Amino acid sequence: MFELFVKGKTLPEAYHNALVALHENNDEVPCPDYDTRQKEASMTFVVEEPLSEPMISKMFIGDPRSLEQYRQEMLDGILDFEVEKGNWDYTYHQRMEKHIPFVIEDLKRNAESRRAVVLIRTDYDMTTDAPACLQHMQYLIRGGALHCKVLFRSNDSTKATFMNAFALIMLQKRIAEALNVSVGSYTHRANSFHVYERDYEMFDGYVRRIKAGGELTYDFEDEWDEMMEEAKPEIAKMVEELKNK
User: Fold this and answer.
1) In whole angstroms, what separates CA 243 from the centre of its chain?
2) 146 vs 34, 44, 50, 67, CA distance in Å?
3) pLDDT tier at 245 (50, 70, 90 boundaries)?
4) Which of 20, 114, 129, 223 lies 20 to 30 Å from 39, alpha-carbon distance?
């Protein structure tokens, strides 16, 4: 199994490097759980300056509304009620929310701590057909900056990775602000970094665009952040409608 490591100054740069590395170094293997095949490797990518612009990749298949909704789901738990209603088994926010105050207090107690870990996986994941892909996050303050290191057991490179990383960087920023420190590096580890057979053509197209160069990004500040802000009322309306169903 290929073991890959790439990095970049910005999130799009690191993500694009990860896509190219997977394209060039992968094993095509069966994926019986989903009755398909996949191209796969183990991947670690490091974003050296997570808040540096540009922050948005054109290889992200969503739009500002979907990214804002996912950010709110992850950071604020806007759809946690779906678990209480029995529609979903869990949300990442539901599993992490009790750990975040501990992370902040532990790093206030000892800025050099190695104990500030958020656990996502639970015993439930051994009995369900949809176990959490995200396993844990660890936060370390080094050199006056908060560094974040996350582990995924499985990560869909073309349809999930960018959105996952963006939301987790926004969470890293929130925790850094609570600690009054700067944002350090973001490290994203996926033991199975893969692309499913149905997405091979899209994956090939992404890599061709990356290798060809050109404009592959958008700025977050004064561009996507404004469009994400404009999407908030529509998202809030959707949430209320789901709650009242």
Assistant:
1) 26
2) 37, 19, 11, 23
3) confident
4) 129
Residue type, 186: Y
Q: How far is CA 97 from CA 1, 73, 74, 120, 139, in A?
A: 34, 12, 9, 10, 15
pLDDT at 230: 98
**Tokens 């974003």 correspond to what residue?**
47
Q: For 43-60, what is each residue's pLDDT tens digit?
A: 999 999 999 999 999 999
- Whether the link from the prior residue into 32 is cis, omega within 30° of 0, is no
Q: What is the pLDDT of residues 223-241, one digit of tens each?
A: 999 999 999 999 999 999 9
Q: Which helix (H) or strand (E) holds 165?
A: helix 161-179
Task: Evaluate whether 150 touches 187 at the Cβ level (below 8 Å).
Answer: yes
